[in-house]
Amino acid sequence: MFVTGERVRLRAMEPEDAEALWRWNHDPEVMRWMDAGYAQPLARVRAWLQERPRNGYDDVLFGIEAPADPGAGGAGGGRRLVGLVRLSGAAPEIGCADLDIYLGEKEYWGRGLATDAVRAACRYGFEAMRLHKVTLTVVVENEAALSVYRKVGFVEEGRLREVFRRDGRWLDKYTMGLLEGELK
Ligand SMILES: CC(C)(COP(=O)(O)OP(=O)(O)OC[C@H]1O[C@@H](n2cnc3c(N)ncnc32)[C@H](O)[C@@H]1OP(=O)(O)O)[C@@H](O)C(=O)NCCC(=O)NCCS
């Protein structure tokens, strides 16, 4: 099953994706604003992809595929895995899920692909999962991510003080939310 955006395609992750995931998780620039925990060896990443339960309501992990040529506009041509988007923590009686996204292939940054992927994942959440709300947290200095979320319709709902440490500084995070019907 694929979820399609204008240029990206979302699909389930496979054990063969382990090398890309491992490489991204070891790239300090990619992981700069993320709560990554300890980077794992390649064999652990592969085992995690093999052993994790298949996508279910409470944890939907999509690989983001983009045209293999980063400059290409349309859906034709080859495709390449460039990042991940995840909706987690949903339960039907709660009606809410948390969203995470990152693009691990940096040459694909700044081309609108994350905006397209967040939009497609939220549409999937509202339409296929019947969610009422999607939430997330983001470090207040992560301007690129904030711009993506605002473009899609997320609004700041609160500020968590000093919950993220980077380079010896404690930073705040916004909590953001997007209600059903607010997706832009
Ligand atoms: C954040 C991230 C997902 C954005 O992906 P992307 O595909 O480059 O995003 P888009 O191209 O759709 O949009 C980026 C927007 O941020 C803006 N932007 C980029 N860098 C910026 C900066 N340093 N300051 C201000 N705005 C910035 C761009 O201009 C663009 O806005 P625009 O379309 O209005 O011009 C990607 O950079 C990434 O994966 N980063 C590392 C992981 C991460 O931070 N994930 C989010 C954790 S909450």
Automatic annotation (TrEMBL):
Domain N-acetyltransferase, residue spans: 8-177
Q: Name one GO molecular function term.
A: acyltransferase activity
Is Transferase found in the keyword set? yes
Q: Say yes or no: keyword Acyltransferase present.
A: yes
**What parts of the sequence cross the membrane?**
none
* Keywords (A to Z) from UniProt: Acyltransferase, Transferase
- The EC number(s) given in the record are 2.3.-.-
Which PROSITE patterns does this UniProt record tie to the protein?
A: GNAT
Protein origin, superkingdom = Bacteria
**One Pfam assignment:** Acetyltransf_3
Q: Which InterPro entries match?
A: Acyl_CoA_acyltransferase, GNAT_dom
Name of the protein in question: GNAT family N-acetyltransferase
